[in-house]
Amino acid sequence: MSNSTSESTFGERLYEAMEKAGLNNTQLASEVGVSDKTVGRYLDRDNPPSLDKKKTEKTIESMAELLDVRFDWLLRGKKPIRSEVGNESVPSRQRLKIPESLHGVPEVEVSVGSDEKPHLDQVGDGFFASADYLQRTYGVRPERLCVMRVTGDSMKNILEPGQQIVLSRWNGEDLRDGTIYCLYGPGGFMLRRIRFSQREGKDMIKISSENDSTEDWWTGIEEFEKKYVLLARGLEVWQKL
């Protein structure tokens, strides 16, 4: 396999990341929820897989997080290989000496790749817990979990700067009324509460900040689906210590 350059193939980058993480086809497939054959096909690819299907995009994101590499590097060879956080030359499990029995939930932030699509890109280690505990506590597969640090005050009194919100990556499920979502739309990235209502006899979605100093938006359901990209669903907020 070749070195980590922009001329390397998708399969070569995936192989390199798997080798450094100490994972084989079966282990990677099990962690991201695909078959061994799917991983094998990815390893044989020269060009990046198309992201037209949301399932494919989620699979590549999950692989990147599990292998401790950036989404844009794995997909297109765009450096840096890892986010510039601490000593990224060593996988997080080795760096912190985390037991293999624990699952790492990454800290992420929103970035827009060269494909002009928003992604949740890993920027550091969030927390570690057993897969069973994560499944019981949050009710979703552990590899879908991530945490994000709140930086703005657009939802002040609900989400304060410095807090962390535990998120479940969007998987195409139905929207839940009254739930906080990580969205990307005409105004950029935002954390907002989604509420269903009616205005003038029409079903509408209210994108609410619950902050008097920040404007709320009303949109029709079809308009919402066209204008906004759902990235994750909020599960729990941690208070800054």
Describe what is shown at a glance.
The protein is α+β, with helices and mostly antiparallel strands.
Rg (CA only)? 19 Å
- CATH structural fold name of the largest domain: 434 Repressor (Amino-terminal Domain)
Give the ordered list of helices and strands: HHHHHHEEHEEEEEEHE
Q: What is the CATH architecture assignment of the largest domain?
A: Orthogonal Bundle
Helical amount: 25-40%
Alpha plus pi helix count:
8
DSSP strand tally: 9
Q: Reading side by side through the largest sheet, how are the strands ordered? A: 3-4-9-5-6-7-8
The largest sheet, given as strand count, sense and whether it forms a barrel, is: 7 strands, antiparallel
Q: Helix/strand-derived class?
A: alpha+beta
Mean pLDDT, all residues? 83
Shape descriptor reads globular
Tell me the number of structural domains. 2
Distance between the termini: 46 Å
Assigned CATH superfamily of the largest domain: lambda repressor-like DNA-binding domains
